[in-house]
Write a structure and sequence with these properties.
5-stranded mixed sheet; 116 residues; Transcription Regulator spoIIAA
Length: 116
């Protein structure tokens, strides 16, 4: 199985919004790149696009929860977009799905972050 992970980050400075899009599974073996990118984000609004994440382990879930808590602590917001059925099943199985806001599209996620 290919465990490579790449992380794309796009900042929309006028809207004070950053979109991070990991591509690949979020696993203990490759999560550092994703964690590093999350630490670099200084925009209050954060969208994490999981449309290219086929699966994740408990470490991946932990990183998402930490990102959410960090955003909330600093008065920002976080929205997940593009969550596939397999990843959603993991989030629901661990009951952390209740912590997050989910969007069906990037446009919906931007609107949710803007209204937060």
């Amino acid at each position: 199985m290919d465990d490579r992970l790449t992380v794309d980050c796009r900042t929309d400075a006028p809207r004070r919004l950053c979109t991070i899009k990991p591509s690949g599974p979020l696993l203990v073996s490759n999560i550092q790149t994703f964690k590093d990118r999350l630490r670099e984000v200084d925009s209050p609004g954060l969208i994490i696009d999981l449309s290219d994440v086929p699966h994740m382990d408990s470490v991946g879930i932990g990183v998402l929860v930490n990102a959410l808590m960090s955003r909330k602590k600093h008065g920002g917001s976080l929205v997940l977009v593009g969550v596939n059925d397999r990843v959603m099943a993991v989030l629901k199985g661990t009951q952390v799905d209740q912590l997050f806001r989910f969007a069906a599209s990037a446009g919906e996620a931007q609107a949710m972050v803007a209204s937060a």
